[in-house]
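cron nightly-structures :: item 1 of 1
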Amino acid sequence: MYLLQAGFNGGDILFQLIMFILLLGIPAALLFLFLALMKKRKSRLDRIEKKLDSLLKEKESRR
């Protein structure tokens, strides 16, 4: 009965909305950061592999 009569304050609604956005936003930001770092790491490893392959070809051509 009292729940139907309770009025919501504008500040309470705003606070709940901000907390909900943070609850969803922080894990999403961490996931995005993790995926971006993994992509950067993969491209770095690909460049190293390409350089190593070229050095090995160069070494074999000298023999």
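cron nightly-structures :: done
Helices lie at 2-5, 10-62.
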